[in-house]
């Protein structure tokens, strides 16, 4: 666990000591550009071409099965590795002695406090009670000593120390446990419940009860228990006994919940010799506690046969009892969606149909289910089509044979290490780091854990990967497979199938079902949430990674038979400094990387959740149900370790989430297919050395040659080291980009003949994203070019014109020209368009010189097909046409502030010619410059002729997202550097001048924008200073909280042979620190608030397009539809923007903040008066702005 407050100056129990880190940091600074610090050099085997004969460095921690010293490299002094290990042992021993001394002192104080309390009792009863109290602690300590004696981690520790440790540990968390609303308290509760859920899954009631009693018997630890913890154990014991646990819960003052009574009734329902009287008393007690029997079936979640057993018990007392009817569906009351959800609306239509029958959708569901049950899917790489010479084919066969042999050995080694580790953990009976992990290593068959670790090994790049990333990935893979098995066991799959069967009838073309009132379907009963805390996932992943590092070895002479046969580790642990942080990395041995490269494998393995779905996504019906069939998917993405978003969603009334869920379902229901001609052209270039101009990364073989390196690394000068660093950075970037393109193209090639779907979820601001991470329509130009709508629609009378206009938009030309002028230009260059479509790689290649070349090529091909068809209006087109927003953030600010001039510049007002805000700002800045130049300002004179749209665009675009003058100056400087003619000596002064003028120009054009931003920023600052995070609710009812907390470094330790070894340090937020980060909270609030409005507008457009039966998808503020329906979508988009900003958005936000943060007692009437005063119109509260900030400031001070 992280150190508590006040311990910041103490040494961590794991990781290199401060002097070691300081020495390494000094060496790094002296080396200037050497990014990594490694200790314990190891001699690496030279390969056949002597390419890797330099010495590499690594950290080797002896594993459970190996305690021999690490082999030293040639010419290495034996003092250094021995010094490191000895120092670790010595420091650990000293720390332990200090801890033991403090623990004994703490135990003595506890005893004295107990005696002092006893003396305050009544004199007549003092003697008897004092004796009784003195005997019980002694007995407990003795029992703890005898229990822990054989299971102590340290060989030299005395048994009595364990009992004293437990007593002191119980005293430590008091500061946290007193605050039951703190994030740390909630995470600790979640950890306890996760462990108990594991025992439930493993059907180990004795272990669950033992674990619960460890906390129940401690007066301090007991505060971490809530009714849910007891309920889980009661469910485990439901088939045997539960009354004792029920009594335990009541004895500590916890009120039984509905789940408690459900567990008791389930226990009684399983009893074959069921008697009436105990049941009657239980039902009477349930009633006395304010519950009703019907609530058991309305609010409790049941798994397996639990519901039937509860019902059986109830009917013993009430023979005629019938299950309550399902609750009548609630209708969303949002003013923005009154027409959409109106049941009596004359616009009621059938649910938009897909071009599939009921049977076809059922078959596709089974295919998707099969893929998810397999957890992973292996596909052919597009590199498999690359031609090879006979000599290369022979080398590949030998490489693959060697790799197959090694993998078989690694499998056996990892399996043995895992089993040995589990055996050691099973002997531990105290709540230590390892035995907490033990149940999590029993959830799956051992073979599955081994498969997960090998999968990580197979995908590791030659440059290595962060320990934190690998640990999170390993832990998450175990969690996801556990969730899948849990869903299968709890009959969740059956419930999903029932819901999906109803959903199919809404979508199938051969079924007629009217659209439900809320646009969706009712969800299943659900299943109990059993999320694991982030820290737990990291600890589990770190343990698996440690097993992998120690178990996987490769012969030193694998590629060079002349060398000595000796096993060396495949993976090694290095430390790298990034800024002031020390970060652990795992890197593969060059021999391993060479073997993998020589094998040239053509198969890629992905998690099933990384692939597009083969059937329409499961509809979102709650924050816990939707998207994939079995794979666990969160409705809202959030920062690792943050739990506030999920708590908000769970507390939100379900009806308030209906619009958001329906919008996600609408986006996910869009069926896609592959544009095969374009994909084939891209793959051919990809396999032919790529093309950086066309955004197709070249292979590593095309990387620049490495610099000449002297045989002795220490003799390299600063320039050589810098050159080597740049080479390594370039090759790492090339490998990353190449693999990213390989994954995307291989997945696209796999589904080239299929119809597929992208399930969606959202981030904490409400912005939507496809769930599959690699291949989706949010990708780059290459990815978007190979995607088509699976459903085709005729172009209609204006469809071909929209295709041509879309093509000109993709070129980046004619931005300030009217749509008719763009259409005329497209007709003028039809010869170039047709040549590009017919001869993309051998013709004049006009398409290659556009802003989005691959999308332009795809559009050229579509225009060619349509124009050559007998009737272009009847041509069936699958091509998506885009409509992009004009600086969308400024559009929202202009609408919020009712800025007429700003609204015109971002196309919110009717104009004959499309307006370009970037050009308008550049023109404004140029006017400022001319005035200053006339007055003799030197830098204004230097800038003559250099102010352009391109120079100011990035800064104008990011003003809405809270860019500061400092950040804007850097953007300006970068743009000016790109101009060869600009004098370099004026870069700083010119960029400083320009950013000032850009901000002034925007302030003139958008007069209220800066006022709104300042109000949002200052409000967020005051809220954060009061110790709270900024929250708000979107106009569609989605609750939002900003996940910015003060960062805290955490060290995850690994135990080996009685020592703690440095393993993993990572930064996390929002889990153990409940204090918000004031700077991030205030800077992020304006852009995040605008993002939430942007998302709201998109969702409104999506829902109303759904009513019209249109295909609609979005890339944030860029909307896609068929050419036939572009005009309709444009109309809906504008109508919903007007409807959104007709709401009192800022007024509602002000009222929400005043009510949530600053209404205290007598100040409430003042807040209400202020809220009423600020309702004086749709414009921003210019009159009450200062008063509002002053009032908020006063309230914060009073609260502090």
From TrEMBL:
This is DNA-directed RNA polymerase. Residues 117-135 have a biased composition (Basic residues). SMART domains: RPOL_N. Keywords: DNA-directed RNA polymerase, Mitochondrion, Nucleotidyltransferase, Transcription, Transferase, Transit peptide. The lineage of its organism: Eukaryota, Metazoa, Chordata, Craniata, Vertebrata. Its EC number is 2.7.7.6. DNA-dependent RNA polymerase catalyzes the transcription of DNA into RNA using the four ribonucleoside triphosphates as substrates. DNA-dependent RNA polymerase catalyzes the transcription of mitochondrial DNA into RNA using the four ribonucleoside triphosphates as substrates. Component of the mitochondrial transcription initiation complex, composed at least of TFB2M, TFAM and POLRMT that is required for basal transcription of mitochondrial DNA. In this complex, TFAM recruits POLRMT to a specific promoter whereas TFB2M induces structural changes in POLRMT to enable promoter opening and trapping of the DNA non-template strand. Has DNA primase activity. Residues 57-88, 115-138 are annotated as: Disordered. Pfam families: RNA_pol, RPOL_N. Belongs to the phage and mitochondrial RNA polymerase family. One of its GO terms (cellular component) is mitochondrial DNA-directed RNA polymerase complex. Its main location: mitochondrion. It catalyses: RNA(n) + a ribonucleoside 5'-triphosphate = RNA(n+1) + diphosphate. GO terms for molecular function: DNA-directed RNA polymerase activity; mitochondrial promoter sequence-specific DNA binding. Residues 73-88 have a biased composition (Basic and acidic residues). It is found in: Mitochondrion. Residues 366-669 form the DNA-directed RNA polymerase N-terminal domain. One of its GO terms (biological process) is mitochondrial transcription. Homodimer. Component of the mitochondrial transcription initiation complex, composed at least of TFB2M, TFAM and POLRMT. In this complex TFAM recruits POLRMT to the promoter whereas TFB2M induces structural changes in POLRMT to enable promoter opening and trapping of the DNA non-template strand. Upon metabolic stress, forms a complex composed of FOXO3, SIRT3 and mitochondrial RNA polymerase POLRMT; the complex is recruited to mtDNA in a SIRT3-dependent manner. Also forms a complex composed of FOXO3, SIRT3, TFAM and POLRMT. It comes from Buteo japonicus.
């Amino acid at each position: 666990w992280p150190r508590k407050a006040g311990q910041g100056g103490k040494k961590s129990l794991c990781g290199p000591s401060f002097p070691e880190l300081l020495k390494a940091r000094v060496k790094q600074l002296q080396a200037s550009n050497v990014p990594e610090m490694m200790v314990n050099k190891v001699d690496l085997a030279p390969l056949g071409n002597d390419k890797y004969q330099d010495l590499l460095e690594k950290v080797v921690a002896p594993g459970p099965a190996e305690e021999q010293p690490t082999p030293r490299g040639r010419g290495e002094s034996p003092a250094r590795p021995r010094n490191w290990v000895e120092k670790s042992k010595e420091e650990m021993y000293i720390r332990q002695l200090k801890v033991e001394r403090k623990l004994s002192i703490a135990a003595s104080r506890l005893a004295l406090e107990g005696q002092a309390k006893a003396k305050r009792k009544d004199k007549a009863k003092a003697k008897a009670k004092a004796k009784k109290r003195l005997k019980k602690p002694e007995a407990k300590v003795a029992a703890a000593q005898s229990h822990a004696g054989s299971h102590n981690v340290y060989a030299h520790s005395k048994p009595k120390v364990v009992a004293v440790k437990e007593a002191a540990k119980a005293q430590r968390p008091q500061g946290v446990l007193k605050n039951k609303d703190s994030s740390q308290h909630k995470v600790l509760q979640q950890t306890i419940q996760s462990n108990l859920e594991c025992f439930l899954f493993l059907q180990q009631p004795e272990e669950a009860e033992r674990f619960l009693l460890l906390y129940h018997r401690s007066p301090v630890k007991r505060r971490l228990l809530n009714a849910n913890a007891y309920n889980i154990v009661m469910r485990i014991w439901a088939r045997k006994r539960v009354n004792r646990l029920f009594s335990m819960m009541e004895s500590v003052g916890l009120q039984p919940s509905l789940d408690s009574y459900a567990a008791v009734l389930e226990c009684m329902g399983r009893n074959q010799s069921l008697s009436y009287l105990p049941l009657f008393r239980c039902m009477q007690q349930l009633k006395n506690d304010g519950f009703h029997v019907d609530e058991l079936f309305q609010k409790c979640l049941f798994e397996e046969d639990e519901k039937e057993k509860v019902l059986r018990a109830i009917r013993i007392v009430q023979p005629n009892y019938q299950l309550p009817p399902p609750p009548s569906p609630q209708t969303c009351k949002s003013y923005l969606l009154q027409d959409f959800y109106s049941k009596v609306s004359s616009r009621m239509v059938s649910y938009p149909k897909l071009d599939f029958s009921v049977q076809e959708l059922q078959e596709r569901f089974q295919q998707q289910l099969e893929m998810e049950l397999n957890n992973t899917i292996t596909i052919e790489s597009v590199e498999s089509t690359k031609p090879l010479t006979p000599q290369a084919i022979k080398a590949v066969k030998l490489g693959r044979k060697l790799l197959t042999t090694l993998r078989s050995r690694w499998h056996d080694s990892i399996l043995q290490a895992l089993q040995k580790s589990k055996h050691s953990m099973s002997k531990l009976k105290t709540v230590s780091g390892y035995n907490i992990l033990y149940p999590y290593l029993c959830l799956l068959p051992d073979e599955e854990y081994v498969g997960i670790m090998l999968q990580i090994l197979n995908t590791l790049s030659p440059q290595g990967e962060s320990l934190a990333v690998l640990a999170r990935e390993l832990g998450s893979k175990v969690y996801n497979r556990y969730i899948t098995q849990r869903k299968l066991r709890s009959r969740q799959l059956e419930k999903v199938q029932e819901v999906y069967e109803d959903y199919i009838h809404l979508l199938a073309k051969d079924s007629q079902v009217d659209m439900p009132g809320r646009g969706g379907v009712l969800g299943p009963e659900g299943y109990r949430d059993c999320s694991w805390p982030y820290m737990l996932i990291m600890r589990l992943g770190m343990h698996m990674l440690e097993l992998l590092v120690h178990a996987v070895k490769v012969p030193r002479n694998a590629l060079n038979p002349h060398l000595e046969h000796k096993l060396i580790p495949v993976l090694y642990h290095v430390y790298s400094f990034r800024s002031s942080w020390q970060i652990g990395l795992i890197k593969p041995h060059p021999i391993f990387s060479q073997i993998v490269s020589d094998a040239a494998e053509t198969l890629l393995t992905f998690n099933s959740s990384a692939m597009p779905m083969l059937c329409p996504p499961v509809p979102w019906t709650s924050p816990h149900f939707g998207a994939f069939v079995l794979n666990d998917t969160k409705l809202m993405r959030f920062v690792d370790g943050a739990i506030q978003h999920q708590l908000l969603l769970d507390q939100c009334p379900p009806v308030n989430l209906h619009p958001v869920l329906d919008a996600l379902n609408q986006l996910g229901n869009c069926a896609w297919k592959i544009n095969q001609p374009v994909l084939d052209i891209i793959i051919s270039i990809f396999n032919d050395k790529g093309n950086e101009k066309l955004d197709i990364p070249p292979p590593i073989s095309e990387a620049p040659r490495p610099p000449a390196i002297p045989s002795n690394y220490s003799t390299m000068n600063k320039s050589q080291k810098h050159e080597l660093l740049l080479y390594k950075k370039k090759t790492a970037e090339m490998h990353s980009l190449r693999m990213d393109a390989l994954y995307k193209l291989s997945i696209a090639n796999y589904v080239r003949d299929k119809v597929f779907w992208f399930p969606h979820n959202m981030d904490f601001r409400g912005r939507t994203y496809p769930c599959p991470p690699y291949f989706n329509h949010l990708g780059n130009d290459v990815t978007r070019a190979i995607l088509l709508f699976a459903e085709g629609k005729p172009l209609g009378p204006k469809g071909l014109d929209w295709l041509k206009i879309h093509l000109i938009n993709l070129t980046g030309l004619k931005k300030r020209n009217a749509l008719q002028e763009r259409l005329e230009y497209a007709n003028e260059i039809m010869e170039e368009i047709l040549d590009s479509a017919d001869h993309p790689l051998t013709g004049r290649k006009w398409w290659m010189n556009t802003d989005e070349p691959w999308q332009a090529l795809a559009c050229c091909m579509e225009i060619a097909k349509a124009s050559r068809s007998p009737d272009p209006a009847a041509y069936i087109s699958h091509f998506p046409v885009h409509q992009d927003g004009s600086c969308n953030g400024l559009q929202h600010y202009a609408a919020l502030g009712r800025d007429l001039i700003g609204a015109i510049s971002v196309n919110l007002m009717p104009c004959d010619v499309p307006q370009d805000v970037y050009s308008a700002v550049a023109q404004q800045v140029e006017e400022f410059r001319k005035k200053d130049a006339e007055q003799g300002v030197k830098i204004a004179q230097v800038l003559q002729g250099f102010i352009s749209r391109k120079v100011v665009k990035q800064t104008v675009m990011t003003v809405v997202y809270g860019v500061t003058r400092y950040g804007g100056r850097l953007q300006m400087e970068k743009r000016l550097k790109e101009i060869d003619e600009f004098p370099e000596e004026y870069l700083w002064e010119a960029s400083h001048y320009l950013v000032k003028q850009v901000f002034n120009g925007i302030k003139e054009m958008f007069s209220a924008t800066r006022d709104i931003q300042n109000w949002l920023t200052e409000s967020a600052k005051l809220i954060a200073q009061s110790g709270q995070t900024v929250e708000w609710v979107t106009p569609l009812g989605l609750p939002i909280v900003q996940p910015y907390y003060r960062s805290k470094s955490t060290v995850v330790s690994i135990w080996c042979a009685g020592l703690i070894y440095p393993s993993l340090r990572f930064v996390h937020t929002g889990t153990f620190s409940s204090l918000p980060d004031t700077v991030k909270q205030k800077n992020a609030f304006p852009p995040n608030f605008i993002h939430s409005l942007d998302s709201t507008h998109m969702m409104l457009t999506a829902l109303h397009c759904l009513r019209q039966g249109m295909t609609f998808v979005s890339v944030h503020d860029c909307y896609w539809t068929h050419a036939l329906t572009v005009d309709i979508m444009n109309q809906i988009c504008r109508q919903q923007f007007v409807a959104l900003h007709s709401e009192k958005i800022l007024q509602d936000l002000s009222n929400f903040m005043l009510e949530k943060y600053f209404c205290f007692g007598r100040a409430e009437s003042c807040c209400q008066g202020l809220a009423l005063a600020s309702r004086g119109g749709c414009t921003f509260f210019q009159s009450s702005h200062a008063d509002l900030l002053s009032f908020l400031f006063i309230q914060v001070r009073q609260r502090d």
